[in-house]
Amino acid sequence: VLRVEQRDGWRKLVLNRPDKLNAFNEALHQALRAALEDAATAADCRAVLLTGEGRGFCAGQDLGDRRPGEGPPPDLGNTLERFYNPLIRQIRSLPKPVVCAVNGVAAGAGANIAIACDIVLAAQSARFIQSFSKIALVPDSGGTWLLPRLIGEARARALMLTAEPLPASTAAEWGMIWKAVEDDRLTLEAENLAARLAAQSTAGLARIKRALDAGATQSLDAQLDTERDLQREAGAAPDYAEGVRAFLEKRAPRFG
Ligand code: LHQ
Fold first, then answer.
1. What is the pLDDT of residue 178?
2. Which CATH class for the 2-198 domain?
3. Is 130 in the pocket of ligand 1 (CB under 6 A)?
């Protein structure tokens, strides 16, 4: 259900249920959780690239997993509590950058998992669909928090209420993702980006993630204090000394 490929200093995680457009079942959730847990601590993993096998990125929850009407009504809150919420928290708090290469359609939770990643590239032919309203559900996986912050309330509301597909190029224009790239360049560009991030200071990038996450819910005043604290920590760390030394010696830094 998930293919993990170790590269030079980073890891590629490939959602691998292509006949279901990589929709999530329990096995995929468990495999992804384990892979991210491992990525968080592994020294040979300094960046993560998340993508999908086949023509889709991820179609959200596997709707065929349990047929409606069979047995008592499902507790979807419990599904979020057990699987989707921990996944979003895991991606946001991973002390390493997470790149997402959206290779095809990203629907439902699949769309919101994509935008929870740190840097999102998408193939020109990919589309994002907040498909929840079509089956009378609430957008989840952090979407109601993240999407309005990325593209503004008016656009987020319309996308969520209508479930209209959003082409990758519009997603990029609207600032929902970093870039839309030609389909046949997506893998190369995403892999180059992951490799570049892996060569940067991992601890330094982790502090940037922490700063941005804190800023999303804090006043400017509180955020200035957060920046001071994180910068104090950064300045005392060996990667800063190495970065400055490398700059002065006009060479590439070798971060720990
Ligand atoms: C699928 C799926 C799928 C199973 C395509 N499941 N098979 C959280 C908590 C708990 C429960 C509920 O949900 C959530 C969060 C959510 O994610 S809710 C939203 C769930 N996702 C959706 O509603 C999207 C459903 N899929 C679609 O609307 C379409 O498949 C899209 C627009 C993604 C792609 O359309 P097409 O390119 O036309 O492909 P297709 O529909 O023909 O799909 C290809 C195959 O994949 C097909 O199987 P088949 O055997 O006929 O070839 C689909 O049944 C299967 N598939 N999504 N979510």
1. 98
2. alpha beta
3. no
